[in-house]
Amino acid sequence: MEETFWIQSEADGTPIFTKKFFSDKKPKALVQIAHGMAEHIQRYDEFAQFLVEQGIFVYGNDHRGHGESGLKQGLLGYFSERDGFLKAAKDLYQITKQMKNDYPDTPLFLFGHSMGSFLARCYMQQHSEEIDGVILSGTGYFPYHLTAFGKQIALRLEQKKASPLMNKLAFGGYNRKISYPKTAFDWLSRDDREVQKYVEDPLSGYIPTARFFVDLFTGIEQMQNKNANRAVHKDLPLLFISGDHDPVGNYGRGVWKSAELYESLGFRHITVLLYEKARHELLHEINRKEVFSSILKWMEQHL
């Protein structure tokens, strides 16, 4: 079963579209999904239905500036005029509180993909005691000089206008290791049908605003801040999953670098799964059933 509803953001009143996947049985666990940049929660239906069949209920929202939330705001690819990334992370916690109210004493895992993994890593810094594990899909590591440089460029542009320049700087090289790409988004998946669905989806793949990139780079700096990560409780289980052909994770290197950051701080339960030849969107890859099963197995080990 599915249900959709709206919440008013406690951060600033922005309406946030939220979706719940459930059955008439009692859940053994809950998963909260934080989707990636320039996409929306409806793209996670197949994964969510798989989890519900396993007795795990799923909640997920369209982040501010994305999907139905962005349509209601009137501007896709725009978080807020200030502190947008922080507000998006606060929106996630607001949904966590509702999940805990709906299903008290039920284990809760946070799943973040790509930009959603960046949000999840910032969320952890504030609320690690509230969750039982974090799954980071398609995450990466980004040197400070690159994010600082990108932010300075983005700040000089018109903030509420889509920025092809920033989009090209951020993603322009992502197809470079693919021979004869059919679309600008082949780096997402080896499954041509899934890539085509993304291309044809009006709520996916659009060019975000300059202000969005300011917020994104600010969020990346925050998620990699060692002092902020010291606040996360060290027994929190972390699962890093990525394709070794994913440019966001620098073909595996950035995934390992991210895992090593937490290991250096004393985290005790870190798992890294890299899938050979898989690209950025593991949940839309040709081996997605294998990925679904791996995520389920890991969660069951931490119930």
Give a structural overview.
GO terms for molecular function: hydrolase activity. Helices cover 40% and strands 16% of the residues. It is an alpha/beta fold. Helix 3 (84-102) packs across helix 4 (115-127), helix 4 packs across helix 8 and helix 5 runs antiparallel to helix 8. The chain starts with a strand and ends with a helix. 44% of the residues are buried.
Write the layout of secondary structure elements.
Blueprint: E1 2-8, E2 15-21, E3 29-34, H1 45-53, E4 56-61, H2 67-73, H3 84-102, E5 108-113, H4 115-127, E6 133-137, H5 144-155, H6 164-171, H7 192-200, H8 210-223, H9 226-229, E7 238-243, H10 253-264, E8 270-275, H11 288-301
Parallel strand pairs: 3-4, 3-5, 5-6, 6-7, 7-8
Antiparallel strand pairs: 1-2, 2-4
